[in-house]
Model the fold of this input.
Amino acid sequence: MPIYSTDGSPKLEPWQPEGVTIHEGEPNGRGFTLHEAGEGDGFVGAYLFECDPGRTSYRLVQNEILHVLEGEVEITLDDGSKVELSPGGVAFLTKGQMSHWWFKTRFKEMAIVAG
Done:
């Protein structure tokens, strides 16, 4: 069952996705699991995630759709593709790529990952 704060928003807990390397800053990742189901290629999860400015990287082990709620981020993948997102922006990132994230400001996203 979700844990909500007094203002009705989910309580975010310290959280950094597995395999993340921090290159610059102190992003202090915080997150909340909205839903998880299935396993392997049939897995799907929905999450809220926020962090402070910084630069990180990690390998995408699943496909990821993200919707930016707050802040600005630049994401570069090893295939050379790059996307810059601000509030309202949406991106689809394919699994298997190494992703490099530059959180330019405090950042918040809703992400859906799938096998």
About this structure: The mean pLDDT is 91.
